Amino acid sequence: MSGRRPFVGGNWKMNTDLASGEALARTVGAECVPGLGSLDVVVFPPFPYLQSVGGALQGSAIELGAQDLSSEANGALTGEVSAEMLMDLGVAWVLVGHSERRHRLGESEALVEEKLTMALESGLSAVLCVGETLEQRRAGRAHEIVRHQLTSALHRLSADFAREIVIAYEPVWAIGTGVAATASDAREAHHEIREFMSSRYDSELASGVRIVYGGSLVPGNAKTIFAELGVDGGLVGGASLKAGDFLSICSAATIGIAAG
Ligand code: PEP
Q: What is the pLDDT confidence band of residue 184, given thresholds at 50, 70 and 90?
């Protein structure tokens, strides 16, 4: 085994309502009880449901995550949500740089870097999402794009913070499309990311940092992808809205993670 603890995140995006979000949290929380599995499981509900979903997860081993945060600590920023506010609600994790925020909401590399720094300096754990578009992949630029995103996001991040982040490799063309990356594409991308971390920091940090795959993960492909060298779990969108599918992806992560 790699020694890295598997990680599975459920990104609910702008889905569920108060009642269905609570019910989903209760159902998955009832199966993920403390001591049952040696993996980190985090769900990322919409902002307005954080508190109630957090309540529904009480007593379970699932941690609470937020889908975004402000790059600023506080102030006149209508509609923004700060790291402190998230932590007040019991949030432990936050997604940074999700492709929907980068590509649909125009979030820049600079803003991703500021948000990542803010999250970590405030005491939140962060999942940094990176990944290329289909056009970039077709142009043979996938690795270059991911390296560029990492260079920018990590350019002032200390090794102490960097070793704690989870990096989610999420090819944009695989997100919500039903077309997951092949297991070998995922392995290659994860290898490139680990190589990048080794050159940016050092080989010890690179071999300890967790890199997970995201993009159309379902119970039917999770085991194969998680069995690839260097894949430490997954970030799950659509399938995280179905308790049974999410739980079966979690169990694939506990048994399927390969060494690397
Ligand atoms: C995501 O939003 O991070 C994601 C991976 O979505 P999906 O699983 O639906 O492709």
A: very high
